[in-house]
Amino acid sequence: MVRQCEHCGERRQALRRPKTGHKVCRECFFQLLEDEVHETITQNQLFKKGERVAIAASGGKDSTVLAHILSELNTRHDYGLDLFLLSIDEGISGYRDDSLETVKRNEVQYGIPLKVLSYKELYGWTMDEIVKEIGRKNNCTFCGVFRRQALDRGAALMKADKMATGHNADDMAETILLNLLRGDIARLSRCTAIMTGEEGALPRCKPFKYTYEKEIVMYAYFKKLDYFSTECIYSPNAYRGYARDFIKDLEAIRPRAIVDIIKSGEDFRISSTARMPVQGVCSRCGYISSQKLCKACVLLDGLNRGLPRLGISRTRGIKSTKGVADIDEKSTVAEAGGNGFSKKLSLEF
Amino acid sequence: MRLNLEFKGGLELLFGSVKCHEVDLDSNEITVEKLLVWIRENLLKERQEMFLKGKSVRPGVLVLINDYDWELMGHLEAPIKDKDSVVFISTLHGG
Fold first, then answer.
1. What angle do CA B94, A99, A90 make, to 5 degrees?
2. Which pLDDT tens digit goes with each residue over B10-63?
3. Is there a single domain that holds both residue A175 and residue A300?
4. How many CB pairs under 8 A join A and B?
5. Do A230 and B10 touch (CB under 8 A)?
6. Is A62 annotated for ligand binding?
7. Which of A16, A60, A251 has its CB closest to that of B69?
8. Do A176 and A291 fall into the same domain?
9. Are strands A288-289 and A280-281 parallel, antiparallel or unpaired?
10. Fewest CB within 10 angstroms: A20, A58, A97, A230, which?
11. Nearest partner of B88 among B35, B41, B24, judged by Cα
12. How many domains, chain A?
């Protein structure tokens, strides 16, 4: 049976919005989604006029739609932002090289300049090389840690004031669940913040924090936005996949579960007796870290010394830098046999 | 009955890396549920669990009939007739 849109009452219903259950037409859907993102941005004061903002772009659905909507809203509501696209090339053949082609097209389509930074130039290792070295487990640990730093470095290089990422509501719910399952209290307390990093590191925000993945995909489909959509070849073993499957099953039964999990996460209060790590800086590269050496330095050391489990296996006691304590803080990995690592870390944080 | 099936969001990899399939079915009118059975038996080349779960599609796969959300038309009971276009989009990949 054909029914009219519950918002405008005129056009035919095209989809059912998971967050609200509303059945709306295409045009109202676009307007409602864009207005909601605008409201998220203004209510949480994500941007200031004149800011230079790096849009972390992978060529995937979330970052492509983010680039589209952000540039649209920037014009429509006069945010006055100086936007550019920032992409990281992890060196995953058959995956990243294809998605980078998409970002290059986005650069043209949205008229937003693009900067690409690679793991090879930053760390001396591509993900393909890393996987060859460490095997098929814990790949995402390396990649995620390196990418986070790579984005910060890229944004700093390009003199950005802020970064925007395409993390959506489904991602947020998965992350909360993941941290819960792992007993990672520190991350659990931080992961629902819509803007992070104001204490020194480059602030990064998530305009899509309350936006359902289904709506991002529908938006892109109806607007015929060009994005790259293949699962990373190394990801099937990632633990997040289990959280994702569970969230998807929950969504099928009760779509509001996703925003409700986010709400639960936001209102968690950590017991005052829980032991929490103190934030400092890495003694070698200066990046934000709760340990003497940041995770990226530990992982890279492991790679360069042929100790792939360094930084991955649990060590006893609080100090997880056990095993790297014998590395002289002043020595560079290049001296220890690395490849160009020390040169790239002349960037200060 | 002739149908246009489209597989997007990475699903095409399960169908010989071909996104668009023009297919011919014997019935005059079927439901999505029956179409899924037909797809499983006639088109799906590999890794069933990436596309199907039980009687339905794997959670995270969106279904559109003539560009309308199947959730508006009864999900698995949604009717499909001659010359319809059915699009399956997976959301299960990086953003």
1. 80
2. 899 899 989 999 999 998 889 999 999 999 999 997 889 989 999 999 999 999
3. no
4. 74
5. yes
6. yes
7. A16
8. no
9. antiparallel
10. A97
11. B35
12. 2
